[in-house]
Every structure is written in structure tokens, then in C-alpha cells.
Amino acid sequence: MSMVFCRGCAKEISTLAAACPQCGAPQAAQQSYANGPAITTGNPYIEALKNYVVFQGRATRREYWMFILINLGISIVFGVIDAMLNTNGLLYNLYSLAVFLPALAVGVRRMHDTDRSGWWILLPIVNIVFLAQDSQPGPNRFGKNRKGDN
């Protein structure tokens, strides 16, 4: 995590801080990343839904796997509700259809984070290995590292 100096008291604080923890002074607007969406809410699931058509840039390992985990939980809940209402999977299928494009986009951005083409997401077994790998340090052909590694 990189550090900057507070605009109010000049203490060293995190670049992610919206306000200084010592003096409370508001800091710069959200950081924008080159060739990729900015993180604004801190919730990877919401971020993936907001950036559902953004196939450029990079997504961190945490961002991708938290999206998958939350998506899995919501899918299970819809599956249980479908079973209770005896709707033959209607709610689950509608939800799966709604999150297909955001899941594909965050998967492609995750591949970019490991410096691979987004087309690797189509290979069933090898893509899991690539999705689990750590980010490539420093910038790559898809943009800056969102973790702040150089």
C-alpha cells in the first residue's frame, strides 16, 4: 500500500484514505487508474456490477474472488428460494443471466492483471490456475497495477 501526505496536517497516510485519521481533513478525490475502472465503494461485488461492460484494465485477485464468493452466496439463496416456492429455478436463472456479463468482465480484467489475454477465460481448467495467481508487479500492457506494487 502506498502512502501520501495529508493535505491538512502533512502526516503520512494511506492513499486510500478519504479523510486524514489524525486531523480529519478531506483528501483528494478517488484515485483513477489508467485503463481501468476506479474503485469507489470498496465492495468488489458492487464494483463488478457497476463496471459490467469494462473489459479493459486490471482486477486484483481479491476483487475477483470476493465477487465470485458473494455471487455464489446470492446464487445459493436464490436456489433455496426457488426450491421453497417451487418455481423450477426461475429466480436463480434470471439472476445468473443478470450477472453473466459482469462476471465475464471481471474475469477478463483478472486475466489482464496476470498479463494474459482475456481470451484465456474460455479455457476451463487452466483459467482457474491463472485466476488464482498473484498480480504481475508493476505496470503491464493492460495498465498500472491496482495493488500499488512497482
Secondary structure elements and pairings:
Elements: E1 3-5, E2 12-14, H1 44-50, H2 61-85, H3 90-113, H4 126-132
Antiparallel strand pairs: 1-2
Helix pairs in contact: 1-2, 2-3
Detailed description of the structure:
The protein has two domains: 1-31, no CATH class; 34-150, no CATH class. The chain contains four helices and two strands; from the N terminus they run ββαααα. The chain has helices at 44-50, 61-85, 90-113, 126-132; strands at 3-5, 12-14. Helix 1 crosses helix 2 and helix 2 (61-85) runs antiparallel to helix 3 (90-113). The longest helix has 25 residues, at 61-85. The model is unreliable at 30-35 (pLDDT under 50).
Largest pleated sheet:
2 strands, antiparallel
According to DSSP, the number of beta strands is 2
What is the number of domains?
2
Annotation field: number of helices: 4
Low-confidence stretches: 30-35
Give a concise summary:
The protein has about 150 residues and is mainly alpha-helical.
Question: What keyword list fits this structure?
Answer:
single chain; 150 residues; mainly alpha; 2 domains; two-stranded antiparallel sheet
